């Protein structure tokens, strides 16, 4: 591809998005540039503090428990109170709890504060995702969410590499820097971002004199009854369980082999660097393709990458394994996030995004416990082999989900396989009939509207 075409592609990728989106994008980048603690928490506990892998897994699980609780609660608050208040409360409280975590010494206190950090930090995600869906036009949302995901990983790549070097001078510096950057993120939101929650309209009189029905309420029960959406949540949980091992089991395993925090930082930074380099071009390539085989391929690559970790003995081999599962993540994120947005009604975006975020939070809860226990009792190689098996199971689930969605097209519209990710079908915004997302107005195309950033710890 020529330089001129590359420049044109880059221009098309960033043009036409509203100013509010770019301020939200900036706050995301700032937040992730300071995201040191979650990445290095397991290594801090095992290498610096001398705790076991099981304890590190327990702390990681409590971090995930806090996130699981806040995912649903913040989703409801995002719809009821608004996106902006939820963001501000989350970011300010995260800055405080992360700073406190750097000072506590007692193991019980560490576990409790880690749970609070997980709760406060995860509370912002449904609000961010809903705000992007509010302020960006439907035809631009795949691109907007991909750019936000790109910012997440740009910040992650820089912070992962920098944190390994900073940790040499003391882990407390990491905690305070993380808190400071989160506080700066809150300042950006407070000054630059207005509230974006759509107004709910009451019953009105139509042109023929008949009263139009008010927009139906969307509760958590509505989300739970949406079978197709809950299937996406379940499959998201499985693939998230694999990916979460990179932030708990992987640093513990590398530390046990005598590798340093800097070595881990270099290996895991491969993930962020690769996403920064190829996420946007890949998204442009896959956004109009049949999502089912893409999701299957993403699960297979993710499982294979973690399975390959069993054969790693050097930083280079660990980086190669990270490269393989990162390719799966790159394909999975915009494809799966498109489905989430497609099935989310306008006035239930917070709840739907909260339930989706819950899948990652539950993975953050269970993956550290499983990973730590398996490493302690059976060894790291068993964990990596099991991850490969889970990837295969997830791929099978995606294949089955794809067949189900293709067989149930929206009335008068194309099915999922025909529309593909990023198609132009009518965005889902009504609730009624059976499950949300099954009415003719919503269509059943995967993708189309949006893709959100990966909900990492």
UniProtKB/TrEMBL annotation:
Q: Which domain of life is it from?
A: Bacteria
Q: How does it sit in the membrane?
A: Multi-pass membrane protein
Where are stretches of biased composition, namely Gly residues? 416-435
Domain (Major facilitator superfamily (MFS) profile): residue spans on this chain? 1-403
Regions crossing the membrane:
21-45, 51-73, 85-104, 110-128, 149-167, 173-191, 229-252, 264-282, 294-312, 381-401
**Where does the UniProt entry say this protein principally localizes?**
membrane
Q: Which Pfam families match?
A: MFS_1
InterPro entries linked to this entry: MFS, MFS_dom, MFS_trans_sf, MFS_Transporters
Please give the residue ranges the record annotates as the region Disordered: 416-457
Keywords assigned: Cell membrane, Membrane, Transmembrane, Transmembrane helix, Transport
Q: Which Gene3D superfamilies match?
A: MFS general substrate transporter like domains (1.20.1250.20)
Which ranges of the sequence are coiled-coil? none
Name assigned to this protein: MFS family permease
Record the organism. Streptomyces demainii
């Amino acid at each position: 591809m020529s330089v001129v075409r590359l420049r044109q592609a880059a221009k098309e990728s960033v043009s036409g998005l509203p100013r509010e989106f770019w301020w939200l994008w900036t706050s995301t980048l700032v937040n992730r540039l300071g995201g040191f603690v979650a990445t290095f928490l397991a290594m801090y506990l095992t290498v610096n503090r001398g705790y076991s892998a099981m304890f590190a897994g327990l702390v990681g699980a409590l971090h995930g428990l806090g996130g699981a609780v806040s995912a649903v609660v913040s989703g409801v608050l995002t719809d009821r109170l608004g996106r902006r208040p939820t963001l501000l409360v989350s970011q300010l409280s995260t800055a405080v709890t992360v700073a406190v975590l750097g000072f506590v010494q007692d193991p019980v206190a560490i576990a409790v504060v880690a749970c609070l950090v997980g709760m406060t930090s995860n509370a912002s995600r449904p609000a961010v995702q809903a705000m992007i869906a509010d302020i960006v036009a439907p035809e631009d949302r795949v691109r907007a969410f991909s750019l936000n995901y790109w910012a997440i990983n740009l910040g992650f790549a820089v912070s992962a590499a920098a944190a390994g070097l900073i940790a040499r001078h003391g882990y407390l510096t990491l905690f305070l820097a993380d808190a400071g950057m989160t506080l700066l993120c809150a300042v950006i939101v407070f000054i630059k971002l207005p509230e974006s929650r759509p107004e709910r309209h009451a019953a009105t009189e139509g042109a023929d004199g008949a009263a139009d029905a008010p927009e139906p309420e969307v509760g958590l029960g509505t989300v739970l009854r949406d079978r197709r959406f809950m299937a996406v949540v379940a499959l998201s949980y499985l693939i998230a369980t694999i990916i979460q091992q990179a932030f708990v089991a992987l640093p513990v395993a590398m530390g046990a082999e005598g590798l340093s925090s800097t070595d881990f930082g270099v290996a895991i930074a491969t993930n962020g660097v690769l996403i920064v380099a190829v996420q946007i071009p890949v998204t442009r390539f896959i956004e109009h393709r049949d999502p089912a085989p893409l999701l299957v391929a993403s699960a297979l690559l993710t499982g294979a990458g973690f399975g390959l970790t069993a054969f790693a003995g050097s930083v280079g081999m660990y980086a190669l394994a990270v490269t393989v599962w990162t390719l799966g993540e790159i394909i999975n994120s915009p494809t799966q996030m498109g489905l989430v947005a497609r099935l989310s009604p306008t006035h239930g975006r917070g709840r739907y995004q909260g339930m989706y975020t819950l899948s990652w939070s539950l993975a953050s809860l269970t993956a550290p416990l499983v990973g730590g226990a398996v490493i302690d009792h059976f060894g790291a190689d068993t964990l990596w082999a099991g991850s490969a098996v889970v990837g295969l199971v997830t791929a099978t689930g995606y294949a089955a989900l794809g067949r189900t969605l293709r067989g149930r097209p929206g009335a008068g519209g194309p099915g999922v396989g025909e529309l593909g990710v990023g198609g132009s079908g009518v965005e889902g915004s009504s609730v009624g009939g059976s499950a949300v997302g099954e009415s003719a107005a919503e269509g059943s195309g995967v993708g189309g509207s949006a893709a959100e950033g990966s909900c990492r710890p």
